[in-house]
Amino acid sequence: MRGILLFIGMILMVSLVQGQVDSNSELHKTVVELDKRLFDAYNKCDMETQALLMDEDLEFYHDSAGLATSKSGVLQSIKENICGKVTRTLVEGSIEVHEIPGFGAVQIGMHSFSNNQEPNAESIPSRFITIWKNNGPNWTITRVISLHK
Asked: Where is the signal peptide (predicted)?
């Protein structure tokens, strides 16, 4: 828990110091496209694309499931528990992008998840934070905080 609070504090500090980039900037457009690519793959169970977008040093903090530090474990969990069962929808206009100079970007936004087995179930939007690392021509996710409560 202490690590999560420290991590969130660091993100908030970066946000205050840097401020979010303009929504017309190349960085913002890049992160929005990366988000779309990731969750198109997530919704279609395209495990290969998801694997390409996740860093080997992945840390995934989930307010219900806890901390996952294994890229292969996260991918296996998605394959077993998400594929064909859940659809993610981004809340339009919710993405904020904050540059991390020399590293990449912080993405903050809202999304909702629909249970495909219960199409009439309520889907409540929740906040997420993603840390994207710029690896030259490629970008990967190094940290995720997924908040649903």
From this structure: none
Which pTM value belongs to this model? 0.85
CA atoms lying within 13 Å on the CB side of residue 76: 6
* pLDDT tens figures, 9-65: 555 555 444 588 888 899 999 999 999 999 999 999 999 999 999 999 999 999 988
Q: Which domains does the chain have, with CATH numbers?
A: 2-146 (3.10.450.50)
Strand partners, 88: 113
Pairing of strands 54-62, 138-146: parallel
Residue 72: CB atoms within 10 A of its CB come to: 11
